[in-house]
Amino acid sequence: MIKFFKTIATLEGISFLALLFIGVPLKYTMEMEQVVKIMGPIHGFLFIAYIVLAIMLNSEHKWPTKKFVIICLASVIPFGTFYIENKYFKESANS
Fold it and tell me: Which residues form the DUF3817 domain (predicted)?
């Protein structure tokens, strides 16, 4: 399940960055709202999947509260999920 979480974390991070650095600028500079309309729901789904998987892994692995909170908060910070994947799950690459 950690491998799946890492995949979702990567996709969530990419979708968040695409939304922030491609979708939003295109929406407000070129009035291309369709990019946000497409990327928004995709990112929303991946964000929810990330949080649900974090909750499931927390139940399974009994993480300290601080670690769980950091992992969840990372999903709302640009590049946060990449940091989490590297810091907490790097050693779990083959899991």
Answer: 3-88
CB 92 within 8 A of CB 2: yes
DSSP state for residue 21 in the 8-state scheme: I
According to DSSP H, which parts of 1-95 are helical?
2-18, 24-30, 33-61, 65-73, 80-89
Nearest-angstrom CA–CA distance, 41 and 37: 7
Structure tokens that stand for 86 in this block:
């590297």
Overall domain count for the chain: 1
DSSP-assigned letter for residue 76: G
Cα separation, 27 vs 20, whole angstroms: 10
pLDDT in tens, 35-93: 999 999 999 999 999 999 999 999 999 999 999 999 999 999 999 999 998 888 876 55
Return the pLDDT at 91: 66
